[in-house]
Design a protein that fits this description.
This protein is mainly beta. Helix content is about 10%, strand content about 30%. It has a 6-stranded antiparallel sheet. A hairpin with a 2-residue loop joins strand 3 and strand 4. The N terminus is likely disordered.
């Protein structure tokens, strides 16, 4: 029996986060959706081999790569200890700027598609924590 890939530390999906398909903007109560963005570099990293373990609503880590020789605003997308890909160069400015200011950001899988185009297989939501009420 093949080993099942598991996260080292579980990141819970928000309660009620995906109560209804397509309602990801309205159901996230502790996070603010900033941008929806496709995953770039899908076939060049670990995303294909982890395809069956990746689920909608799953939290992913954004990692800033300031010394990336191809893109000075590069933002890598990781799950556990695996790099899945990057935010596309033409859409990574917001995430890079917020990460450079140490803002707490998270990416979540919004859509997972069996698509011919590797840029359309995983669609991510870029989120930041909502300020606490009364703050």
């Amino acid at each position: 029996m093949p080993n099942k890939i598991q996260q080292a530390r579980p990141i819970p999906t928000l309660r009620g986060y995906y109560a209804k398909r397509g309602r990801y903007r309205a159901t996230a109560t502790t996070e603010e959706l900033l941008q929806t963005i496709p995953l770039a570099g899908f076939r060049h990293h670990d995303a294909p081999k982890l395809w069956n373990a990746l689920k909608r609503g799953q939290a992913l880590t954004l990692r800033r790569e300031r010394l990336n020789p191809h893109d000075d605003k590069a933002v890598a997308i990781d799950w556990v200890d695996h790099q899945l890909g990057y935010l596309p160069r033409e859409q990574n400015q917001l995430a890079a700027d917020l990460l450079d200011r140490d803002e707490p950001l998270i990416a979540r899988i919004i859509a997972k598609r069996d698509s011919v185009s590797s840029r359309k297989q995983l669609e991510l939501g870029l989120y930041r924590m909502r300020p606490a009420r009364g703050a």
